[in-house]
């Protein structure tokens, strides 16, 4: 008859389609390191509490270590008939060591087992994603440092607005990523509690030491409520929300790279290693990598929606629906990992075009605010100054001139306060340097921000 662990109750085999429908080892197989780690912590605690003999414990631990080695060596064949990663490993253990293997599951259920495995896996995944983010931050700091002198238009409404430094723009991307990183760190801290010992839903009659298993697995404490421990998945919602926000940020960065590498902007040249050609148009160098980063955002946002919908309306405690949590979580982490790596490579190998950026500053009247500020700093109410500057822009447009090409008489006709010194304010470098307010693009502010971020990255590398 059936070789399922619940075989006693059953007289018929699971229908083939039902078996295929419910098997999950092709997805959850990657939880094996966490599953083995969790089982070792559990069985050692069973020994310490004299629930199992020392001999049983040693046999189980040795057996699990052998299974670990055989999975690492690619020797263990996952069997979908054994449903999931937990039953594959347990069956392999019983095959390997016999009776003692059957004692491992004492005082445990797959419900607290899988919840524990997922917390361990996700905690680790948050850590490696923050490392991926740090790698991209390093790239941004390096690029920013090398381009402090590059001026470029800052935009609102995708219209040239005011001059900034390229470094300032790159550091804006870094700020977005810093917050993404912080969200992952927060999520990892909150999820760091142990469900183990909650068993199926109501704990167990065995005198387990839940503090000991929590400690052994690096959790801060055992979860307080057994029903919650086996059924809560908000730790996944938090992690994947953080990833979805991060993916949206990466998509915005990618979109700017796409725009900037167009002929229309020409601000950046992506390297050959991160662009592709066209099979029909020989001149093309397409920014496929940032386009794909932008495109893959849907997967991550989709993963979040997937999890939210899966959880909505689930009664406590465990329901099999929860098995569906793994694919979206893995997909979200894998996608963000790849996007971060691709963007790191694409940005570090890209070259920025100082001349094209400078040329873009010449058109578009980015110095109009300077004219208004010049007047306002001489006592003219800003609203009036703004109006006067607007009139000057209109006249410059009519004459096909820039603001610095307009003769002084035109300025003075627009407002009697104008004198020669207004032209000095129109210089782009001056305009950027005068924006020395905290958080602004002036050289000193950008250099402070760079040093500050460098320091933070260094401290994290040291930690
Ligand atoms: N594969 C299952 C999951 O991922 C393990 C828990 C199964 N528990 C159960 N009561 N059927 O959720």
Counting DSSP E segments of at least 2 residues, the number of strands comes to 6
Structural class: mainly alpha
Biggest sheet character: 2 strands, antiparallel
Give the count of structural domains: 3
Overall average residue pLDDT: 96
Shape: elongated
Low-confidence spans: pLDDT under 50, at least 5 residues? none
The proportion of residues forming helix, as a percent range, comes to 55-70%
Find the CATH superfamily of the largest domain: Fumarase/aspartase (Central domain)
Please list the strands of the largest sheet in the order they lie side by side: 1-2
CATH class of the largest domain: Mainly Alpha
From the 3D structure, determine the CATH topology of the largest domain: Fumarase C, Chain A, domain 2
Q: Which percent band covers the strand fraction?
A: under 5%
CATH architecture of the largest domain: Up-down Bundle
Q: Radius of gyration in whole Å, from Cα?
A: 31 Å
The H-and-E topology, N to C, reads as HHHHHHEEHEHEHHEHHEHHHHHHH
Number of helices: 19
Bound molecules: arginine
Topology:
Elements: H1 16-22, H2 25-28, H3 32-48, H4 54-72, H5 85-97, H6 110-146, E1 151-156, E2 159-165, H7 166-190, E3 193-194, H8 210-216, E4 221-222, H9 226-231, H10 234-260, E5 268-269, H11 288-311, H12 326-348, E6 351-352, H13 354-362, H14 368-376, H15 382-399, H16 408-414, H17 422-425, H18 428-433, H19 443-462
């Amino acid at each position: 008859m059936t070789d399922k662990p619940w075989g006693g109750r059953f007289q018929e085999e699971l229908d083939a389609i039902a078996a295929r429908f419910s098997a999950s080892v092709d997805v959850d197989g990657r939880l094996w390191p966490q599953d083995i780690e969790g089982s070792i912590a559990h069985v050692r605690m069973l020994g310490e509490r004299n629930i199992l003999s020392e001999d049983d414990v040693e046999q189980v631990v040795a057996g699990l270590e052998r299974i670990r080695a055989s999975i690492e060596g690619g020797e263990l064949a996952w069997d979908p008939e054994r449903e999931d990663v937990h039953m594959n490993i347990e069956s392999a253990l019983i095959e390997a060591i016999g009776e003692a293997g059957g004692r491992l599951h004492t005082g445990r259920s797959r419900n607290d087992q899988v919840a524990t495995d997922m917390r361990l896996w996700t905690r680790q995944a948050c850590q490696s994603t923050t490392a991926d983010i740090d790698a991209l931050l390093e790239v941004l700091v390096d690029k920013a440092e090398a381009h402090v002198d590059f001026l470029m238009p800052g935009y609102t409404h995708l219209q040239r607005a005011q001059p900034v430094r390229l470094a300032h723009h790159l550091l804006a991307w870094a700020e977005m990523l810093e917050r993404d990183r912080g969200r992952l760190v927060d999520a990892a801290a909150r999820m760091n509690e142990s469900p183990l010992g909650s068993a199926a839903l109501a704990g167990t009659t065995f005198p387990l030491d839940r503090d000991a298993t929590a400690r052994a697995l690096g959790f801060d404490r055992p979860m307080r409520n057994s029903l919650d421990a086996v059924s809560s998945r908000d730790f996944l919602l938090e992690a994947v929300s953080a990833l979805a926000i991060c993916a949206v940020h990466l998509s915005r960065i990618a979109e700017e790279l796409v725009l900037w590498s167009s002929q229309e902007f020409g601000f950046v040249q992506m390297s050959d290693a991160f662009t592709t050609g066209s099979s029909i148009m020989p001149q093309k160098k397409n920014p496929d990598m940032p386009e794909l980063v932008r495109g893959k955002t849907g997967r991550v946002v989709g993963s979040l929606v997937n999890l939210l919908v899966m959880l909505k309306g689930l009664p406590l405690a465990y329901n099999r629906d929860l098995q569906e949590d793994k694919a979206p979580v893995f997909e979200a982490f894998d996608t963000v990992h790849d996007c971060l790596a691709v963007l790191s490579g694409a940005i570090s190998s890209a070259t920025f075009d100082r001349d094209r950026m400078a040329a873009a500053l010449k058109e578009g009247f980015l110095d109009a605010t300077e004219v208004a500020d010049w007047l306002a700093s001489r006592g003219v109410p800003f609203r009036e100054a703004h109006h006067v500057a607007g009139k000057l822009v209109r006249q410059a447009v009519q004459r096909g001139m820039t603001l610095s090409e307009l003769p002084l008489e035109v300025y003075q006709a627009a407002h009697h306060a104008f004198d020669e010194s207004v032209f000095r304010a129109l210089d782009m470098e001056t305009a950027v340097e005068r924006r020395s307010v905290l958080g602004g693009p002036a050289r000193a502010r950008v250099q402070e921000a760079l040093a500050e971020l460098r320091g933070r990255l260094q401290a994290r590398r040291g930690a």
